[in-house]
Specification:
- The N and C termini lie far apart (38 Å).
- The strands form two sheets. Strands 1-2-3-5-7-10 form a six-stranded mixed beta sheet, with helices on both faces. A four-stranded mixed beta sheet has the order 4-6-8-9.
- Helix 1 links the parallel strand 2 and strand 3.
- It is built from twelve helices and ten strands.
- The longest helix has 16 residues.
- The chain is α/β, with parallel strands linked by helices.
- Helix 1 runs parallel beside helix 4, helix 6 crosses helix 7 and helix 10 packs antiparallel against helix 11.
- It folds into two domains: 192 residues, Alpha-Beta Complex (2-enoyl-CoA Hydratase, Chain A, domain 1); 47 residues, Lyase 2-enoyl-coa Hydratase, Chain  A, domain 2, CATH 1.10.12.
Length: 255
């Protein structure tokens, strides 16, 4: 049984975590397979948006605690486990997290590493690491705080409480909440809408929004302007603008 399931429905690629017996807990094998699958889809010109999901019961219930409990600090450092998260962050293709059920610890960090989250009404988000005597270490303290603000992040991380999908949407962590049975299909629909736009423009827009997330306003504005000029230099920009004036649907080629 493959630990990661990959489907291609061009222009959308779908990656599903597949450790059901462990609620998709993120061990080294799963993370390695995930990074490999995302890199392959990211390099496929036919794929213009990627959906990352788990199962109806769990997106991912956290890191593999058994594996972590046996590791020393030096083993954690030498294994470079956290480096895999940098590889996910560097995926250029827009990445939609399809979340149903438990999305905790490393699973919540993985969802936050995506560009937007579509959540089932059953989804629960949390960072319960302090209950194990550790802290979130794959972006949880940083991305959650930026998404929901200091007060809410402190509550979730220090008390260990879970956010429902509705709470997560109100707080700004989740983009859309959908019915229990629609978690994957709605994420695919959102991905299809994203994939229908100019692929170069989408990648540049993603890069620019991420810069806004990470930089002072003036730096972000300067960066956005440079990326706008770069977008204008593409054949897609000429096609999109021309198609608008000619009142027809643009045919983007990703050039």
């Amino acid at each position: 049984m493959s630990i990661v399931l990959v489907e291609r429905e061009p222009p959308v690629g779908i990656v599903l975590l597949n450790r059901p017996e462990a609620l998709n807990a993120l061990n080294d094998e799963l993370m390695g397979a995930l990074v490999e699958a995302l890199a392959e889809l990211d390099g496929d010109e036919a794929i213009r948006c990627i959906v990352l999901g788990g199962s109806e019961r769990a997106f991912a219930a956290g890191a593999d605690i058994g594996q972590m409990a046996e590791a020393t600090a030096m083993e954690m450092y030498e294994a470079r486990r956290i480096d895999r998260w940098d590889a996910i962050r560097k995926v250029r293709t827009p990445l939609v997290a399809a979340v149903s059920g438990f999305c905790l610890g490393g699973g919540c960090e993985l969802a936050m590493a995506c560009d937007l989250i579509v959540a089932s009404e059953t989804a629960q988000f949390g960072q319960p690491e302090t209950g194990l005597g550790i802290i979130p270490g794959a972006g949880g303290t940083q991305r959650l705080t930026r998404a929901v603000g200091k007060a809410k992040a402190m509550d979730v991380i220090l008390s260990g409480r879970f956010l429902t999908s509705d709470e997560a949407e109100r707080a700004g962590l989740v983009a859309r909440v959908v019915a229990r049975e629609a978690w994957l299909e709605e994420a695919k629909r959102v991905a299809s809408a994203i994939a229908s736009k100019g692929p170069i423009a989408q990648r540049l827009a993603k890069e620019s929004v991420n810069r806004a997330f990470e930089s002072p306003l003036e730096t972000g504005l300067d960066y956005e302007r440079k990326l706008l000029y770069l977008a204008f230099a593409s054949e897609d920009a000429h096609e999109g603008l021309t198609a608008f004036t000619e009142k027809r649907k643009p045919e983007f080629e990703g050039r």
